[in-house]
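Lecture notes, continued. The same structure-token format from the folding unit now serves as the input rather than the output. Read the line below as a description of shape only.
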């Protein structure tokens, strides 16, 4: 049993493979946090708390000036009873008061892990692989019950946490804040790592030392956003990719979030993560419950690569679901940058014919196939086939594509509506809006109100009608704007601040229903690229279009930063034409391919306009990717050189059995009189011999990791070098 409980001391010790997490009920029933870090066999209290009289820290009991909630390391902190730090939650009672006081009531431990109703979460394939601890805290004055849920997946070495609120009283309560986790460190010697960006420039890495006060990243855009990711990690100043302590947190949620770090005046650090309390409240009527989304906590003493491996392993195997979780992902051609809105059935079929000859496996028809969609100002919501472009209908086109030996995929943006659409003319009340306020537009469109059941029903039915009409095996699900004018005509005034969370719950309901109805469809998440790349969406869609920016050099940073949390298997990456449509840069076709091959390879260019030489190069690229695809998509990914820190980038993919390794090295700008460099490869078996597939040279795994391999000098900008090693046996 990975959860050990000392009932006399009311001490709880959660153990993973290499992790320990310790809590204890202390004086007057408060739940304190004692330790999280490298696994210890048995906790005996060596780092016991020392109580000190702090003059400006109030005391629950006037007879003991050394005991204050303002200085105690807590597990789920209340508001208003002496702790001036950021609370984990806040509840308003009928009389307007917001003070609460949670005390320990009971606990239970059991094998398995319950589903979170209406929310994505980590799951167990077998009950015996996960153990759950529930600790119930209560405020008896207002009859509030708060259940802290901890699940330990021992072999994955990961702890998940969520919180359930129950109103056991006879009067309404209103949640003003409800984080999924909060815990205190009795130290502040940390660097903070977060991921930030914008459209076309997602997942940049920020690292800075934490200081006294509040450091916070958040989204209040109605989606997890490219601006800040729902992730943070605290690391030691000497932590690198391969050494040092990491305490990491990631939120399994696709809407507004906060991830906050507070250092108090006594050098204690409080971390909180959950739904953003800004513009949020939730009315909790008697007997009702509210379940927070789940947060994932990862600890390692072996650096950022190991942290990423734990997230990757967990998300690939116990968050992503369905038929495609363990399947190789297809190589696709998307027509968007080849045609934009201006295409005909004949043009599509010519692209498909070229794609088949080049070895591609899936054609994706992007925006413009429905309604009167000749531009971005019209027809979202009208999911009927545009017969001017497809005069023979969608079914005929799909069958034509499939007759050439390719699968067929299609683009939707189901959460949006155009003002110039039949749907909006019929149901103007179906969009997010505040009564009597003018609309704010993004990309000429409005957002449908997914807090309304009938709106969700319409989306489910309209998408189902299209997917049932033809043998479609892939859906690109886009969301090209975030929420404004947030309100719902369907909610009373005292529930208006529930709109954004109800929107996400509606989205999850839609996706769950469509996954159930169409288990043979591979859904790809997209929000103008990485505008909603988060773990919540990964539960429903096993891959995400990483960025609308397809420039290979930009993608070095985007994909490197994304890999901090998410595995390459989840990243859509395409080869596009040059000059690049987003940044105007021209890069070699080989470099574009090597970057795109570091994820789920696809192409997004006009295949009908390529030269014979370019087509031959694409054939070689596709054949090679098929050869290494299993290692790229399901191997272990190691970051080696960061493009955020130098003029180069490098990473490698190692197969599960360590018998194959693919290494990519990129030099961004050519330099005069370049030094000769070696690259030290990671993740090999030090006892194996490895043969270079290109030169037939044989090296030891220990040699490649410690001495490294010499890099060739290339006298042009934006160069790529690939090494491909396979395990070598002397009898080969």
């Amino acid at each position: 049993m990975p959860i050990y409980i000392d009932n006399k001391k009311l001490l709880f010790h959660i153990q993973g493979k290499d992790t320990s997490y310790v809590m204890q009920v202390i004086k007057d029933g408060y739940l304190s946090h004692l330790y999280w870090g490298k696994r210890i066999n048995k906790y005996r209290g060596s780092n016991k708390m020392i109580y000190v009289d702090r003059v400006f820290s109030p005391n629950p009991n006037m007879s003991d000036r050394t005991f204050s909630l303002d200085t105690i390391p807590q597990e789920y902190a209340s508001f208003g009873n002496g702790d001036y730090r950021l609370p984990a939650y806040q509840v308003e009672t009928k009389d307007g008061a917001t003070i609460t006081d949670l005390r320990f009531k009971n606990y239970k431990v059991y094998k398995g892990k319950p589903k979170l109703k209406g929310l994505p979460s980590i799951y167990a394939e077998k009950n015996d692989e996960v153990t759950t601890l529930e600790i119930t805290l209560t405020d008896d004055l207002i009859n509030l019950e708060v259940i802290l849920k901890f699940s330990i997946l021992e072999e994955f070495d990961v702890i998940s946490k969520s919180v359930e609120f129950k109103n056991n009283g006879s009067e309404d309560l209103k949640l003003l804040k409800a984080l999924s986790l909060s815990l205190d460190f009795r130290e502040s010697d940390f660097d903070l790592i977060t991921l930030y960006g914008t459209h076309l420039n997602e997942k940049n890495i920020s690292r800075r030392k934490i200081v006294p006060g509040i450091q916070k990243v958040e989204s209040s855009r109605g989606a997890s956003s490219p601006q800040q990711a729902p992730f943070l990690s605290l690391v030691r100043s000497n932590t690198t990719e391969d050494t040092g302590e990491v305490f990491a947190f990631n939120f399994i949620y696709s809407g507004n979030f906060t991830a906050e770090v507070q250092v108090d005046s006594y050098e204690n650090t409080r971390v909180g993560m959950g739904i953003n309390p800004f513009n949020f409240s939730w009315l909790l009527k008697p007997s009702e419950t509210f379940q927070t989304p789940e947060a994932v906590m990862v600890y390692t003493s072996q650096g950022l690569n190991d942290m990423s491996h734990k997230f990757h392993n967990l998300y690939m195997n116990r968050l992503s679901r369905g038929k495609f979780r363990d399947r190789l992902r297809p190589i696709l051609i998307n027509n968007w940058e080849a045609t934009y809105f201006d295409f005909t059935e004949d043009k599509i079929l010519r692209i498909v014919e070229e794609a088949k000859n080049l070895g591609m496996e899936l054609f994706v028809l992007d925006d413009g196939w429905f309604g009167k969609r000749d531009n971005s100002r019209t027809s979202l919501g009208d999911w009927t086939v545009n017969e001017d472009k497809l005069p023979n209908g969608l079914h005929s086109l799909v069958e034509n594509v499939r007759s050439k030996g390719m699968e067929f995929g299609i683009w939707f943006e189901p959460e949006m509506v155009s003002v110039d659409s039949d749907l909006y003319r019929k149901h103007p009340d179906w969009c997010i809006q505040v009564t009597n306020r003018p609309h704010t537009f993004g990309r000429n469109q409005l957002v449908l109100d997914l807090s309304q059941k009938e709106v969700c029903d319409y989306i489910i039915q309209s998408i189902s009608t299209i997917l049932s009409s033809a043998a479609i095996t892939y859906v690109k699900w886009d969301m090209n704007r975030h929420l404004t004018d947030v309100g719902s005509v369907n909610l009373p005034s005292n529930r208006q601040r529930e709109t954004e969370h109800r929107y996400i719950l509606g989205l999850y309901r839609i996706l769950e229903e469509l996954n159930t109805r169409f288990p043979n469809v591979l859904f790809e998440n997209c929000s103008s690229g990485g505008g909603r790349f988060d773990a919540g969406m990964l539960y429903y869609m096993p891959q995400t279009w990483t960025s609308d920016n397809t420039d290979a050099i930009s993608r070095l940073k985007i994909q490197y930063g994304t890999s901090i949390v998410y595995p390459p298997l989840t990243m859509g990456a395409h080869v596009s034409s040059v000059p690049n449509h987003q940044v105007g840069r021209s890069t070699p076709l080989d470099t574009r391919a090597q970057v795109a091959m570091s994820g789920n390879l696809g192409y997004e260019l006009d295949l009908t306009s390529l030269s014979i030489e370019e087509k031959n190069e694409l054939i070689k690229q596709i054949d090679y990717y098929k050869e290494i695809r299993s290692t790229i998509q399901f191997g272990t990914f190691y970051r080696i050189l960061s493009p955020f820190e130098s003029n180069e980038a490098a990473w490698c993919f190692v197969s599960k059995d360590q018998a194959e390794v693919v290494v990519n090295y990129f030099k961004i700008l050519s330099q005069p009189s370049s030094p000769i460099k070696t690259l030290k490869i990671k993740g090999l078996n030090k006892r194996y011999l490895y043969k270079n597939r290109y030169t037939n040279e044989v090296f030891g795994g220990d040699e490649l990791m410690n001495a490294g391999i010499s890099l060739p000098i290339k006298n042009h900008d934006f160069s790529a070098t690939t090494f491909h090693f396979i395990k070598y046996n002397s009898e080969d």
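Point for the exam: The chain has a mean pLDDT of 97.
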